[in-house]
Amino acid sequence: MTRVQFGIETFGDIPLGDDGALMTHAAAIRQVVDEAALADDIGIDAVALGEHHRHDFAISSPEMVLSAIASRTSRVSLGSAVTVLSSDDPVRVFQRFATLDAVSSGRAEVILGRGSFTESFPLFGFDMADYEVLFEEKIEIFSRLLTEKPVSWEGTTRPALHEADVYPKTESGSLTTWVGVGGSPQSVIRAARYGFRLMLAIIGGQPERFAPYVDLYRRASEQLGTTAHPVGMHSHGFIAATDEEAREAYYPGYKAMMDRIGGERGWPPMARSSYDAEITSGSLYVGSPDTVARKIAASISGLDVGRFDLVYTGGGAMPASQRMRAVELYGTEVIPRVRELLADGAPS
C-alpha cells in the first residue's frame, strides 16, 4: 500500500481567546498560521485552507495565509480546500498558486471546487444561473494553463485568451491539482477526464457509501486514458485526551455552527442523538487519539484512499488552546497509531 498522507484543514473558524471572547478575524488568521507551524513541526503532511466570504470564517484568501505559513514551515504541503473556481479567474488562480509554489519551494497544491457556500457569486458579480457553465469553462481553462505553455481559449464566462503566456511558471513545471467532490458522479468523471486528483468531501453519513465514487474515478481514468491518482478524503473531527472530553468540548460549537448553517438552508436544529450517532457510525472523527485513529484507519482501509485530511476546526467557536491541543494529538498520537493499524492490516 502506498504511504498514506495525513493533512489538516480549516475554513478559518473564529475561535475563543483566553478571555472566552471571540477572537477578531485577524487574530483567527494568526491562530491558523500558528497551528500550521505546529503541524509542520510534528510531521503532519499537509495543511489546506478553505475559502469563505462570510462573518463566521476568517479566511477568504487562502493563498495569502498559506504564504504566511510557508514562511514558518519547511516541509508541509500547502493547499486550498477548496478554491471556488466558479467565481474566480482561472488565470489569476494559477498565478497565485504558482507564486505560492515559488515562495514555498514547491509545496503548493490547489483543490478546485464549486464550493458548498455561494456567497462569492453575488459578491463578485456572478449569476447562480451560470453555476454549471462557470465551473465547466473555468476548469477547462485551468487544465490548459497547467501545461505552462501559451493558451488560447474562447467561451462565454470570461474574455478569450489568444496565445496567452501566463507567469510565473512553476519551478518543477507542474502544480499539483485536485478537484473537491461532494458526491456527484459527474464531478468524479470530470476529475478523471482532466487527470486531476480526487478529494472526497465526506461530511455526513457512513464513509463507506463513497466507495462507488472511488471505483468510478479509477474506472473512468482507465477508460479515458488518464492517471488515476491516490484518492483523498476529508472529514470533520476533534481530538482530546478522552472520548468524553472530546465529545463534550466539540458539541456546543458544532451544534451552533450546524444550526446556523442549517437555518439558512432549511434544515432542522441538530439533536444531540444525531451528533452521537455521527460519531459512532458516521463521518465525525471525535474522541480520544486511539478512538479517532481506529475510525480513520477503518475509513482509509474501507475506501482505499491515499490521503486523509481532518477538518479540525468544525467545532465552531472553540477555545484556541483546545484546537492547538487537537492538532498536537493528531500529529503525535493519531497519525502514528493509524499507520500501525494499517500496517497490521486489520483496523477496527
Automatic annotation (TrEMBL):
<dbReference type="InterPro" id="IPR050766">
    <property type="entry name" value="Bact_Lucif_Oxidored"/>
</dbReference>
<keyword id="KW-0560">Oxidoreductase</keyword>
<feature type="domain" description="Luciferase-like">
    <location>
        <begin position="22"/>
        <end position="298"/>
    </location>
</feature>
<dbReference type="InterPro" id="IPR022290">
    <property type="entry name" value="LLM_Atu2307-like"/>
</dbReference>
<dbReference type="InterPro" id="IPR011251">
    <property type="entry name" value="Luciferase-like_dom"/>
</dbReference>
<protein>
    <submittedName>
        <fullName>LLM class flavin-dependent oxidoreductase</fullName>
        <ecNumber>1.-.-.-</ecNumber>
    </submittedName>
</protein>
<keyword id="KW-0503">Monooxygenase</keyword>
<dbReference type="InterPro" id="IPR036661">
    <property type="entry name" value="Luciferase-like_sf"/>
</dbReference>
<dbReference type="Pfam" id="PF00296">
    <property type="entry name" value="Bac_luciferase"/>
</dbReference>
<dbReference type="GO" id="GO:0016491">
    <property type="term" value="F:oxidoreductase activity"/>
</dbReference>
